[in-house]
Amino acid sequence: MPLSTREREIAxxxxxxxxxKQIAARMNISIKTVETYLGRIFKKLGVKxxxxxxxxxxFPVSEFPAxxxxxxxxxxxxxxxxxxxxxxxxxxxx
Length: 94
Known about the structure:
Elements: H1 5-14, H2 20-27, H3 31-45, H4 50-57
Helix pairs in contact: 1-3, 2-3
């Protein structure tokens, strides 16, 4: 479910590091209202922290993870270590 206009406005104020109190003052709403909006934002985005909200907002909406998927960079496979081929020169001799 996409964020409402108001939820998006509040989410965008998290990025610069504003506190709930600062967001409330800037938007002329109560701190409790900010907390309520943040709860809705976290639920809609499937996140548990403000940092995750900021991370997700750095991507286009079409790239958001589906609900229940991990929030964060895609884990990479470990690098494959290749052994030197037989019959060749040993590493470093060449």
